[in-house]
Amino acid sequence: MNLTVNEIFYSLQGEGGRSGEPSLFIRLSKCNLACSFCDTDFAFGKRMTLDEIHDEISPYPCRWIIWTGGEPTLQLREEIVAYFKERGYRQAIETNGTRRVPAGIDYITCSPKQQFEKIRELIPEVDELRFPMAKGDPLPDISILPRSKRYLLSPIFDGMNVVQENVDYCVELIKQHPQWGLSLQMHKLIGIR
Ligand SMILES: C[S@@+](CC[C@H](N)C(=O)[O-])C[C@H]1O[C@@H](n2cnc3c(N)ncnc32)[C@H](O)[C@@H]1O
Ligand SMILES: Nc1nc2[nH]cc(C(=O)O)c2c(=O)[nH]1
Ligand code: SF4
Ligand SMILES: [Mg+2]
């Protein structure tokens, strides 16, 4: 089995409810969307076998993988998740919610971009819904979304830079609607990957 991998790196989860947790990022290339604000160049891809990926991550002391991209559900399969589970890894995924998530994933972050009403059919339950928000964007309607343990607003950054008006807007929305919380791209603020 092969995956087309954009990059592999070891860092701290910078976003959402697992912020600060050491994690092995496996960024898969290709996406089915083209968000105007996307901060990631996922075009490059190197074909790797699962054994090659395992050889690259196993020297690190960490046993949490974050599958991201691009859109990782375009490539990830249950058998691949099982391969890493058998080798002692817990696995999180960052997905845009347009496709099913393979069985065996331990922590699902869904960051919806479009057709919010269709996500629940594909992914009935997630650990975290994390919405990228620019000033003026409407608060998403929780009632049509997958059940989630956490509901987070994530102010859209301009590349590596914080956009204060997006932050201020999210903070005000959250104070008015306290079922929501804030997710900042912490890694950008502290200058790590
Ligand atoms: C690069 S995406 C990859 C995973 C998946 N395609 C998705 O969109 O969830 C990872 C996370 O970065 C967020 N993101 C991308 N560009 C951003 C930006 N400029 N500001 C804030 N968050 C951003 C996405 O919303 C998503 O939560
Ligand atoms: N540190 C760090 N945390 C992240 N969480 C999600 C990321 C992503 O690009 O999917 C990301 C990333 O690129 N870096
Ligand atoms: S879905 Fe994710 S990776 Fe794809 S363009 Fe949007 S933010 Fe970027
Ligand atoms: Mg990123």
CATH architecture: Alpha-Beta Barrel
Number of domains: 1
Q: Report, as a whole number of angstroms, the end-to-end distance.
A: 28 Å
Structure summary, number of beta strands: 9
What is the radius of gyration computed over CA atoms, rounded to a whole number of angstroms? 16 Å
CATH topology: the name is: TIM Barrel
Structural class: alpha/beta
CATH class: Alpha Beta
Shape: globular
Q: How much of the residues is beta strand, in percent?
A: 25-35%
Query: What is the N-to-C succession of helices and strands?
Result: EEEHEHEEHEEHEH
CATH H-level superfamily title = Aldolase class I
Ligand inventory: S-adenosylmethionine, the ligand Nc1nc2[nH]cc(C(=O)O)c2c(=O)[nH]1, iron/sulfur cluster, magnesium ion
Mean pLDDT: 98
What helical percentage do the residues reach? 10-25%
What is the strand arrangement across the widest sheet?
3-1-2-4-5-6-7-8-9
Tally of separate helices: 5
Describe the structure.
Strands 3-1-2-4-5-6-7-8-9 form a 9-stranded mixed β-sheet. The chain has 5 helices and 9 strands. With 193 residues, it is α/β, with parallel strands linked by helices. It has a single domain, classed as TIM Barrel. The structure holds S-adenosylmethionine, the ligand Nc1nc2[nH]cc(C(=O)O)c2c(=O)[nH]1, iron/sulfur cluster and magnesium ion. The site of magnesium ion has 2 residues, from loops. The site of S-adenosylmethionine has 18 residues, from strand 5 and strand 7. Keywords: 4Fe-4S, Iron, Iron-sulfur, Lyase, Magnesium, Metal-binding, Queuosine biosynthesis, S-adenosyl-L-methionine. It is an enzyme of class 4 (lyase). It holds the Pfam family Radical_SAM. It catalyses: 6-carboxy-5,6,7,8-tetrahydropterin + H(+) = 7-carboxy-7-carbaguanine + NH4(+). Its cofactor is S-adenosyl-L-methionine; Mg(2+); [4Fe-4S] cluster.
